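Form 7-S
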Amino acid sequence: MQNLGIKGYVDRYNDYAKAGNAAFEDVCDSIESNHKIVFDMKGIDAVSTVFLNAFFGQLIDKYGIDRIKSSFKFSGLLKSQFDRIRKYFVDYAALLEEKCVK
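Output:
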């Protein structure tokens, strides 16, 4: 199981897009090996859409939404953060469904 401390990425890069891209690169091997990843938000007040797009958006595009959902466990999230991430997945799934219909 890989622990992914988001605060470390945000602090290191001081840029949500770069932090999301770096985290994306760091978890691909774990996903391909079917290992669980703990997405740890301890020390982070809010999760930005820029980070979510750079991280989860790329992962969903590469591996599919169901595989990403099953690959992650969440830790240290506030209810508002959990709700935001859940909404991101719901919205992304709707977007993917819309693309398939067209």
